[in-house]
From TrEMBL:
Coiled coil: none annotated. Residues 1-165 form the N-acetyltransferase domain. InterPro entries: AcTrfase_GNAT_prd (IPR017255), Acyl_CoA_acyltransferase (IPR016181), GNAT_dom (IPR000182). PROSITE patterns: GNAT. The lineage of its organism: Bacteria, Bacillati, Bacillota, Bacilli, Bacillales. Pfam families: Acetyltransf_1 (PF00583). This is Ribosomal protein S18 acetylase RimI-like enzyme. It comes from the Bacteria. Signal peptide: none annotated.
């Protein structure tokens, strides 16, 4: 497996990957089928991210298949350009196999090269596997976002987590 920055030419594969992840994850923001992302839209977004110096999308690839991603969106203002908000997704068959760790390790290398000092994310408090990964990678909890999401008719909390580099 390799981890690399995604390219606009990956738009179709990336679109398929995000649909797979959202289709079999109980804690992603978007539910299965809720968001329709066409390859053309994905390509445009990937081109835009490629132009920014403080944002990226990393992809985990095995064979010719994308199996996971880690998006880092850098701040737009001068005062928060040093920070990046993270979203990670891994297809079900590859969870628990080190894909997330490899994505985070490459993210840190990328962040240091691109003058990112703060990585941040939110995670549903019930997402034990996500919490375990983030803590293992050095993230700490900063606070709780109460009733942040409505999942299966229940309001759930999220933790704000961060890591300073």
């Amino acid at each position: 497996m390799i981890v690399r920055e995604i390219k606009p030419s990956d738009a179709e594969k990336f679109s398929h990957l995000t649909q797979q992840v959202e289709g079999n994850s109980e804690y992603m923001l978007w539910e299965a089928g809720e968001r329709t992302s066409q390859p053309a839209q994905q390509r445009k977004m990937l081109e835009s991210i490629e132009e920014e110096g403080n944002s990226t999308i990393l992809a985990a690839e095995t064979g010719n298949e994308l199996v996971g991603y880690l998006m880092a969106f850098g701040g737009k203002a001068r005062r928060n350009k040093h920070a990046a908000y993270i979203v990670i997704g891994i297809i079900k068959e590859y969870r628990g196999q080190g894909v997330g760790s490899k994505l985070f390790e490459e993210l840190e290398r990328w962040a240091l090269r691109n003058y990112i000092h703060r990585l941040e994310l939110t995670v549903v408090t019930k997402n034990e596997s996500g919490l375990s990964l983030y803590r293992k990678m050095g993230f700490t909890t900063e606070g709780t976002k109460k009733h942040s999401l409505l999942i299966d008719g229940d309001f759930v909390d999220e933790y704000y987590m961060s890591k300073l580099l």
